[in-house]
Design brief:
The chain has about 400 residues and is an alpha/beta fold. The chain has 16 helices and eleven strands. The protein has three domains: about 150 residues, Rossmann fold, CATH 3.40.50; about 130 residues, no CATH class; about 70 residues, Rna Polymerase Sigma Factor, Chain: A (Orthogonal Bundle). It is about 45% helix and about 15% strand. Strand 6, helix 6 and strand 7 form a beta-alpha-beta unit. Helix 2 crosses helix 3 and helix 13 runs antiparallel to helix 14. The radius of gyration is 21 Å and the shape is globular. Catalyzes the NADPH-dependent rearrangement and reduction of 1-deoxy-D-xylulose-5-phosphate (DXP) to 2-C-methyl-D-erythritol 4-phosphate (MEP).
Length: about 400
C-alpha cells in the first residue's frame, strides 16, 4: 500500500531529505501536504515535483506569491489549496488523507499542529525536539489515548528506538546518548571567551541549520535530546548517560539490566532515521553511503565536560524540576542563540542568559498549552529586559 505523508517544514534540511527519500521510493509514498516558512521558490519546486493537495506558508503575502508562481508555470499542474500561519500548519497536520505527519519545523511552533494531528489520528514522525521538551506531558498521554505512534527521527532517538525493538519485556538500566562534541570539543572556558559565530558553525560531522549547529556547539542540543529521550522512553535524567563520540558512528545505545549493550551504528546521514520512521515497522533498501567498519577505524568515547559546556547540566536541571522550566530553558536558549548569531552577545553569554532566565521566571508545576506559550513569551521578554539594561 502507498503511505500518504504530510510534512511540516518541507524546505528545511530534514524536510528536504525526507522528500529525497520519498522520491527514491515513489512507488511506496504519496505526499499530500507541505508547509514551509518563507522559502517560497523551493516550496514551488516541491509542489511541481510532488503535487500535494494542500500547502501552507508562514505569511499571508507569501501565499499570494506562491499562487502567482504556480499559476504562471504551465508544468505546475493542479493548484493545491494554499494556507498560511498557524491555521495553515494545522491544516497540513490534519490533512484528511495523510497517515503520517513528519514534523520538521524548528521551535515551539510545532507543538499545536502536532497536537491537532494526534487528535486527528495521525502517526507522528518527530524531528522537532521542542514538541516533547516543552509539551511532552501533553503529547505522550494524548498519543497513547488516540493510539498514535510517535516515531523519533533524530538520529540518536531513532537509534534508541531501534535498539529497543524486540526487547520490550526486558528492563532497561540506562540509555547511552551519544554526541559528537561539536566544534569546540576539548576546549575550556578560557578558550571560548572570544569565539565567534563562524567558529561555532563549523560542525565536524553534520550539516545542519544555524540554530541547531550553535546548540550542538554549546551542548544545549544534547540537553534538549536528554529531555526528549525522557519522554519518548520513560526514563529519568539520571538513567540517560551522555557519551561524547567524535566519530558519530554509534548513534546511541541501550544498556539492559544484564549488562548487555545494544546500539545502532551507521554512516552520519539523516536519511536513514527518516526512512526508518516513514517505513516503520519494516526496513527497506536505501541508496547512499554504507558503513564500512574497516575504513572507520577506532571508535572513541569520552565523558562530556559539564563544567565548560553548561548547556547539558542546565537542561538536566530543567528536566528534574519539570513544570514550565523546560520551556523556559528552551525559549531562553532560542533567544540567546539569536542574539549570538546577530553578534550582540558572546558565546558564553548564552549560558548566563539561560541560567538567569530559569531563575527569573515564575515556576508553574503543571502547565497547559497556553501556559507553555506564556512561559515562552515571558522568557523572551525577560532576556530582552536584561539586554536593555
Amino acid at each position: 500500500m502507498v503511505k500518504k505523508v504530510a510534512i511540516l517544514g518541507s524546505t528545511g534540511s530534514i524536510g528536504s531529505q525526507a522528500l529525497e527519500v520519498i522520491a527514491d521510493h515513489a512507488e511506496d509514498f504519496e505526499v499530500t501536504a507541505l508547509s514551509c516558512g518563507r522559502n517560497i521558490e523551493r516550496l514551488a519546486q516541491q509542489v511541481r515535483s510532488f503535487h500535494p493537495k494542500l500547502v501552507s506558508v508562514e505569511k499571508g503575502e507569501d501565499a499570494k506569491k506562491l499562487k502567482d508562481l504556480l499559476t504562471s508555470d504551465p508544468d505546475a499542474g493542479r493548484l493545491p489549496e494554499i494556507h498560511s500561519g498557524m491555521e495553515g500548519l494545522c491544516a497540513v497536520a490534519t490533512e484528511e488523507s495523510a497517515q503520517i505527519l513528519l514534523t520538521a519545523v524548528v521551535g515551539m511552533i510545532g507543538i499545536r499542529p502536532t497536537i491537532e494531528a494526534i487528535r486527528a489520528g495521525k502517526d507522528i514522525a518527530l524531528a522537532n525536539k521542542e514538541t516533547l521538551v516543552c509539551a511532552g506531558h501533553i503529547i505522550m498521554p494524548l498519543a497513547r489515548e488516540r493510539g498514535c505512534s510517535i516515531l523519533p527521527v533524530d538520529s540518536e532517538h531513532s537509534a534508541i528506538f531501534q535498539s529497543l525493538r524486540g526487547n520490550e519485556m526486558n528492563r532497561v538500566r540506562k540509555i547511552l546518548l551519544t554526541c559528537s562534541g561539536g566544534p569546540f570539543r576539548g576546549k575550556k572556558r578560557a578558550d571560548l571567551e572570544e569565539v565567534g559565530v563562524r567558529d561555532a558553525l563549523k560542525h565536524p560531522n553534520w550539516s545542519m541549520g544555524k540554530k541547531i549547529t550553535i546548540d550542538s556547539a554549546s551542548l544545549v542540543n544534547k540537553g534538549l535530546e536528554v529531555m526528549e529521550a525522557g519522554w519518548l522512553f520513560g526514563l529519568e535524567a539520571d538513567r540517560i548517560q551522555v557519551l561524547v563520540h567524535p566519530q558519530s558512528i554509534l548513534h546511541s545505545a541501550v544498556e539492559y539490566e544484564d549488562g548487555a549493550v545494544i546500539g545502532q551504528m551507521g554512516f552520519p546521514d539523516m536519511k536513514l532515521p527518516i526512512q526508518y520512521a516513514l517505513y516503520y515497522p519494516r526496513r527497506h533498501r536505501m541508496r547512499g553511503n554504507e558503513l564500512d567498519l574497516f575504513s572507520t577505524g577506532a571508535l572513541t568515547f569520552e565523558r562530556p565536560d559539564t563544567e565548560t559546556f553548561l548547556g547539558l547540566p542546565l537542561a538536566c536541571e530543567a528536566m528534574r524540576r519539570g513544570g514550565n522550566l523546560p520551556t523556559v530553558f528552551n525559549a531562553a536558549n532560542e533567544r540567546a542563540v539569536s542574539l549570538f548569531l546577530a553578534g550582540k552577545i558572546r558565546f558564553l553569554d548564552i549560558y548566563e542568559l539561560i541560567a538567569r532566565t530559569m531563575e527569573g521566571i515564575d515556576f508553574v508545576a503543571d502547565p497547559g498549552l497556553e501556559e507553555i506559550l506564556m512561559a515562552e513569551q515571558a522568557s523572551c521578554d525577560y532576556i530582552d529586559s536584561i539586554m536593555d539594561k
